Amino acid sequence: MEKERRDFMGLGLGVFTAVGGIGALYAMKRTWDPLPSVKAAGFTTIDLAGAKDNELTVEKWRGKPIFVLKKAADMKKDPRDIVINNEHYHVSVGLCTHLGCIPAYKKDDHKFLCACHGGEFDVSGRQIFGPPPSPLVIPPFKIDGTKLVLGEEGPEFKKMKDAGLIA
Ligand code: FES
């Protein structure tokens, strides 16, 4: 009798966990819906025209997650920002520079948090707490109108590199 009750409770918990998991996946998909993009031969072209303030989108470039975040007017600007038509974007490889976990974006706090060992990055990808030794990496990029071509070193990327801003 007691065993049956426990089995029943176990089943209930399993269903609850599965439903929670699906909900979390759905929320993740919504947050991570990519911007319109084209991938070809090592390049990913992302159209930033549809990016929304303080909404993180995650693209893919050469198998790596790429964070794209358009900064709202009240968000801290940084020389590491990519600026297109006076709009500031944070774009980085979405892998923690400690041991490579994918940090989560906390939009209310304007921070990336890495759940693995508690590392934190600000909205410009600079490490501000915990073990990460360096900022989130900015991938090679070229600006083409409102589009960003990842995989190509354009003049803006080279300028950042020369200024020592590329980790
Ligand atoms: S992998 Fe991110 S803090 Fe360790």
Q: Compute the number of helices.
A: 2
Average pLDDT score: 85
Q: What would the CATH topology of the largest domain be?
A: Rieske Iron-sulfur Protein
Gyration radius over CA: 19 Å
Strand residue percentage = 25-35%
* Ligands (ions, cofactors included): FE2/S2 (inorganic) cluster
Q: How many beta-strand segments?
A: 12
Kindly give the count of domains.
Answer: 2
* Fraction of residues in helix: 10-25%
Quick rundown:
With 167 residues, this protein is an alpha+beta fold. Helices cover 23% and strands 31% of the residues.
Word description of this protein:
- It is a single chain.
- This protein has 167 residues and is an alpha+beta fold.
- It has two domains: 1-32; 37-162, Rieske [2Fe-2S] iron-sulphur domain (Rieske Iron-sulfur Protein), CATH 2.102.10.
- Helices cover 23% and strands 31% of the residues.
- It is built from two helices and twelve strands; from the N terminus they run H-E-E-E-E-E-E-E-E-E-E-E-E-H.
- The strands form three sheets. It has a four-stranded antiparallel sheet with strand order 1-2-12-11.
- The chain is globular and about 35 Å long.
